[in-house]
Amino acid sequence: MPASYFRQAALFSMLTVPFCSHYAPLFAADVVESWGSFRGPEGNGVASGTHPDAWSMERNLAWSVEVPGGGWSSPIVAGDKVFVTTAVAGDGTRPKGFGEGVASMRSHFMGKAPTEPYSFEVHCMSLKDGSLLWKQQVISKKPPHKVHPSNSYATESPVADGERVYAYFAAVGIVSCLNQNGQTVWQKDVGAYRTSSDFGSGSSLAINEGVVFVQCDNEEKSFLIALDGKTGEEKWRIDRTGRTSWSSPIIWKNKIRTELVVCGAGNVTAYDPGTGESLWTLSGTGGAFSASPTCDESRIYLGNSGRNSRGPLIAVAAGAGGELTLESIGEDQVVWIEDAAAPGMCSPVVVDGRLYVLSRGILSCHDAATGERLYRERLKNASSVTSSLWAADGKIYALNESGETSVIEGGDEFAQLPSNETPGLYWSTPAVAGEALILRGAKMLHCIR
Question: Of 137, 168, 218, 425, which is most buried, counting CB atoms within 10 Å of its CB?
Answer without folding.
Answer: 168
